Amino acid sequence: MEKNLTKQFISTTETLRTKMDASEYKNYILGLIVYKYLSDKLLLEVVEQSGEELTDYSTKDKQTTLYKKLLEDNEIKEDLLQELLNELSYVIEPNYLFNVLAEQARTETLKLDDLREALINISNSNPFFFGLFDDVDLSSRKLGNDEEQQLLIISDILIKLNEIDMMNHDIKSIGLAFDSLIDKFSLDSGKRVEDFFTPISISGILARIVTMGHTNKQEFSIYDPVMGSGSLLLKVGNSIHPSTRVKYYGQELNATTFNLARMNFIMHGIDMKQAVLNNGDTLNKDWPITEPKTFDSVVMNPPYSAKWSADKSFLSDSRFSEFDKLAPKSKADFAFLLHGLYHLKDNGTMAIILPHGVLFRGAAEGDIRKKLLEDGNIEAVIGMPSNLFYGTSIPTTIIVLKKNRLEKDVLFIDASREFEKEKLQNKLTKENVDKIIDTYREKKIIDRYSYIASFDEIKGNDYNLNIPRYVDTFEEVAPLDIKAVSNELKEINAKKQELNQKMSAMIHSLDDRYLVDSNVKAIIELLNK
Q1: CA-to-CA distance for 273 and 245, rounded, in angstroms?
Q2: What is the DSSP string of 382-439?
Q3: What is the residue range of 487's domain?
Q4: How many CB atoms lie within 10 A of CB 202?
Q5: CATH number for the domain including 57?
Q6: Alpha-carbon span 464 to 357, nearest angstrom
Q7: Which pLDDT score is estimated for 484?
Q8: How far, in Å, are 250, 278, 281 from residue 288 at the CA level?
Q9: pLDDT in tens, 188-244
Q10: From 356, 378, 392, 519, which residue has the greatest number of CB atoms within 10 Å?
Q11: What is the pTM of this model?
């Protein structure tokens, strides 16, 4: 069902594809889809609050008429608006409903200022929505050189989106369709899109690891300090039992991506009261700094080997002070890891995706890694296949961390060779993912796949966690049978000589007039050698 909805969403992008890059036109498509969803959802709630039957108000036009009629009754109006705020946390005026604006676009009476005002109004209606539609730039010259051209493009998108009946789909299908659309934009843009989207198979592994043993809790908290589009947070939340009250905490540096994350939460039906999302710089300024500051699970796919200030003042920062060393300026990988570990509950689980360099690089990184191992914080190291992420072929590793472990051993899993190759990138199959999870859960030792290294063994390797040191993936090649190869070569040469003789006989049988051709003469000379 979501596949059909995804196709409908994608069909609305045709007008913009020739005008701008996917990383830019996604802001218009995703923003307007979200506004339509909020508008359509409000109309359904109006019918619900009115006590009328939905079968009698099955179209947007009928629902809009009912909404206007109820608001005209002063005895009903105040109560209705309050109920809408209680249930939805927002209200949209009838004139700014998506279907009303789309109808104006169809009849060529729409004014861009009206759509602009509609987006501003809903952005100001709830703190969660503040600035949500800032990237829907209706005045951009990429839409057209003047307002008339810009209006034509936007009108076309509104009309196409208005034909989609989102409310005919359940929230899971809507969320999956939105995920697929983000996925497509990731593929089309060809940029460092891993910054805002973690592939579903990878996020699934992290989600299953950090929720292991926690699926039936009454409450469960998730934290992603570099949340991107929020896909990783949502994946973890979906791995928890439906009866569990999930609380999401996320931070994102890029304002556009932060807006995308909030949109993603809306389209997955997450109650705004369940999500605390922040637009900020995770490393330079700690967040959150008020309770709760620690969480049941921490997940992270940070930008790999990013630059950060590494200012000496951070040595007194409670996130890093215990380690007496800072991640280098040119590689913030361990800074992200230590930030996440600091915000992990004592009985929680953290999983972070990083490049392999963190496993063996020395200097300050080596000292940080040594202390993590001495404290028993590193539970598992999982080597992933290369080319899993859009925009980069770099191989990555998943590091699983915990606090207050009694053991200091480390489980190593080398899953780098187990994947399905596709045209543009490698893909993990369900079997690949299940094998990783089963090996982690049961702490299995599998020949050429997994191994549990003791602390003393790791210490003997100077705290180097490079996976090939512990998981031997070398496959012995069968010895070469010289005699068999020699006999095969003799057969090939004999066959070659036989074919040459046949060809020579055929050429000599040709009529004399063909033998004067220089090419034929050359072939004869070659065969006679």
Answers
A1: 11
A2: EEPPSS-BTTB---EEEEEEESS-S---EEEEE-TT--EE-SSSEE--HHHHHHHHHH
A3: 482-528
A4: 22
A5: 1.20.1260.30
A6: 10
A7: 75
A8: 9, 9, 11
A9: 765 544 455 677 889 999 999 999 988 778 999 999 999 999 999 999 999 998 889
A10: 378
A11: 0.85
* Rounded average pLDDT over 452-471: 96
The domain tally of the chain equals 3
* Same-domain status, 323 and 421: yes
The CA-based diameter of the chain, rounded to the nearest angstrom, is 112
CA distance 400 to 146: 53
490 and 441, same domain (yes or no): no
Phi-psi region of 487 (alpha: psi -120 to 50; beta: other; left: phi over 0): alpha
Residue 474 in domain: no
pLDDT in tens, 92-126: 999 999 999 999 999 999 999 999 999 999 999 99
97 domain residue, yes or no = yes
Going edge to edge, which strands form the sheet with 396-402? 275-279, 245-252, 219-224, 295-300, 344-355, 396-402, 378-383, 410-414, 450-453
pLDDT of residue 515: 56
**Pair type for strands 295-300 and 219-224:** parallel
Whole-angstrom Cα distance, residue 515 to residue 295?
88
CA nearest to 398, candidates 367, 434, 448, 436: 436
CA distance 149 to 19: 12
Q: How far apart are CA 243 and CA 222, in angstroms?
A: 16
- d(C-alpha 361, C-alpha 325), whole Å: 14
Same domain, 491 and 444: no
Buried b (16+ CB within 10 A) or exposed e, 377-391: bbbbbbbbbbbbbbb
Q: Quote the mean pLDDT of the chain.
A: 90
Q: CB-hemisphere CA count at 13 Å for 204?
A: 14
Helix (H, G, I), strand (E, B) or coil at 175: helix
Handedness of CA 132, 134, 137, 138 (dihedral sign): positive
Kindly indicate the confidence band of residue 512, based on its pLDDT and cuts at 50, 70 and 90. Answer: low
Nearest partner of 408 among 388, 385, 387, 379, judged by Cα: 379
Omega prior to 292 cis, within 30 of 0:
yes
CA–CA gap between residue 1 and residue 5 (Å, rounded): 7
CB 313 within 8 A of CB 355: no
Distance of CA 487 to the CA centre of its chain: 55
Token output for 77:
């109006």
